[in-house]
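Fresh eyes needed here. Kindly weigh in on this sequence plus structure tokens:
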Amino acid sequence: MKIDNTVLKNFSYLTVLQVISVLAPLLTYPYLIRVLGDVYFGKVIWAYSITQLFVIIINFGFNITGTKEIAENNANKDIISAIASDIYIIKFLLFLFGLLVVLLLMQLLDIFAENKTLILLSYLIVIGEVFVPIWYFQGLEKMRFITIINGGAKILSTILIFAFVNSQLDYIYVPIFQLSAAVLAAVLSLVFLYRIDRIQFVLSNISFVSLRARFVEGLQFFASRLSSVIIERANIFIIQAYFGFGEVTYYDTASKIVNLFKIPYDLINQAVYPNIVKTHNMKLVKHIITFILFSGVLSVLIFWVFSAEIFELVYGEYSLLGAKILKILIVIAPLTGIGFFLGNTTLIIFGHYSKFNKSIVFAMLFYAFSTITLVITDSVTLTNIAILSVLTTFFWVAYRGFFVNKYKILEK
């Protein structure tokens, strides 16, 4: 299996970025849990989960459509400038819309009003999503620059957290430092695009027709991306409502560990995606799916044996409940890895956007129906919520697999 040198370079840069992204919470989580306590740390996680919903709204599918457009037009600066200008304008308008929604919720809901400073600061972190053009760097296969920008910002926020968060009352500094890092990354990204890559943002040339076209193109992926985050983060709101902020910390810690083991699969997917867009190399995709299957089985077995020790290492103290949740959720990591390649590098590459999006939307409906069933039958427990997350992931991966097999995509 021969892999393009550019793919290997991008994989290396993405690996560095993801290692920094993972080490930052792995270092700060145990520290923040001990300093802030379960309740205050749970509040920070709860606010962060709300922010993630708005991240998806602002991203609006551009990490897929924008990347694809940039990759297809990587030799034409004028077209790239037009693409970047349209995406930035749409993202900024979505940011303003999200801000209005947050301010409205502060007026309508007591829990938002009681934590309005935390919520507002957490929301403003999405400035990074608005102005840091991951779609641009990925499309041009220039992951070195996004690694330096995002990686440096994350290191800065981690250092500030250790330096200044020393008691429960300092919990508000966590989003402040994350916001500072997001602003720094945004400024550096804009400087790079304008000064180094000479991307021109000319508002006078903006066309409503092109804005509308890119908005509609991103819209087809928006529902699936939003559904994906609802599936992943709605559990936090349910757990907070039924059990409290302390249990949120247990569940989110287990989820973070699982996300750590999704990272290699996500890295490979991001690194090969622009290359697969151009080459349609399905043989490479098949080899990667096989690798994920075997490595995933091995990872799950290791976690089933050492779940208590792994959870204790991250959480900072032993928790039988946390270890049990981790043992269930870990199955999601390899399932998601396979799902990545049954989506982006297969269904999307060959134009089956509808099937890609429906896989997540239908999974979200399955998740919603099952959650309502748990509530009606008074069966809401942390264990059942974790099991439902696994079943929901299996649902959308199997859906994609069915259509990849039906259209014989991997045989092309």
Notes: The mean pLDDT is 85. The radius of gyration is 21 Å.
